[in-house]
Amino acid sequence: MEFKYDPQFDLNFLTEESMKEKNSLFRDCTRLGVLLIFYYVVSYALAYVFYYVTYFVLEGSFTLNYRKIVKTLLEDHESLISSTEYGMSANLAVTAVSLLLTLLLCRLAFKIRPGGFVRPDKEGAKTAAIWIPACFVINMIFSLATAYLTAFLGAQGVYVPSADFSISSPSAAAIIMQLVYVVLLAPFIEEFIYRGLILGILSKYGRTSAIILSALAFGLMHGNIPQAASAFGTGLVYAIIAVNCGSIMPTVIIHMVNNLIANSTDLADVLDIPNFDLYFSIFEIAVALAGFYVLFTRSGFLKYKENSCQLDKKTVSRTVFTNPAIVIYLAMLVYEIIRKIVAVN
User: Fold this and answer.
1) pLDDT tens across 66-124, in order?
2) Is the Cβ–Cβ distance between 236 and 211 less than 8 Å?
């Protein structure tokens, strides 16, 4: 019996496969959005829990009256509450527990093993060393652009808040706590959530949408416009590096070094290092020159191939960025930025 090719049959088959792929993408987008919302809400809730625990330890009693807790702590223990040791202790505890609970939800409820992009990469250290100065340049460019924007808004009477990681009540403990959180723990957790989790779940459908969502969420989660803009720019590069390496380990290293550089001036002030500003300026110039060299000579590394998928890029993008769970999560981040701006103006 002779077989005759039937185009209509093939078209129906592809359409059915595409629908299955689209349903799978929608399901994974929803799961991802729920995980991101869960991480955000748990982090927010645990920050309050930390206050309750602090009150109980200091006062020896328990109350559900949050206003009373805040008032008591600020009036009777202001020096402790405003200290770097306390703030960094809170950040360490809240982010670590939030990550663990998110991992449990990821594994137990959704049966997702988010370890794909966390595997060690043999070339990771080499890749990180090459792209550290380039990411520094990209961060600097976005930071300068944001500085002009905030200056313009300031001239119009709109104050734009920014993050403050300066060390209060300098001490050895304060410096250690700051380094442990800002340079070690925060980069790993942020890379795991905003690169490992997002890219691990979505990149198989379309790397472009996964990269953009990763950078957008990473930028907005910082909670202020100056950091959000620079983090979005570097976040794009981080995500592409992670995709091309198949691992977040290079970006973890880059992120750690970036945070160390960003906090080095505050650390130098605390340690009272003489002529640090001069040395740091020379260092910045050297790193910037190296960064521009990398961008001009190795820009091809930032090209990536889309994964093979039944869906076209436009369909993937529309499905990702119109998914209700993801839209809600991004809206929560935007709301937090707007709330902070409104609160100080």
Assistant:
1) 888 888 887 888 888 888 888 888 899 999 999 999 988 888 877 776 656 666 666 77
2) yes
Which whole-number Å values give the CA distances from 292 to 186, 229, 258, in the listed order?
A: 27, 20, 16
| pTM (global) more than 0.85 | yes
Residue 246 · residue 119 · CB < 8 Å: yes
Number of domains the chain is built from = 1
Higher pLDDT, 232 or 126: 232
The arithmetic mean of pLDDT across residues 186-208, rounded, is: 90
The answer to whether the beta carbons of residues 201 and 110 sit under 8 Å apart is: no
Spatial separation of the C-alpha atoms in residues 46 and 41, rounded to whole Å: 9
In a domain, 2, yes or no: no
The dihedral sign for the CA sequence 286, 288, 290, 292: negative
Structural domain including 172 reads 7-344
| Among 46, 88, 83, CA closest to 181 | 88
> Is-contact 135 258, C-beta < 8 A?
yes
Query: Is it the case that residue 303 has pLDDT exceeding 90?
Result: no
In a domain, 1, yes or no: no
Phi-psi region of 111 (alpha: psi -120 to 50; beta: other; left: phi over 0): left
Q: Which residues contact 67 (CB under 8 A, 6 or more apart)?
A: none
- pLDDT higher than 50, residue 274: yes
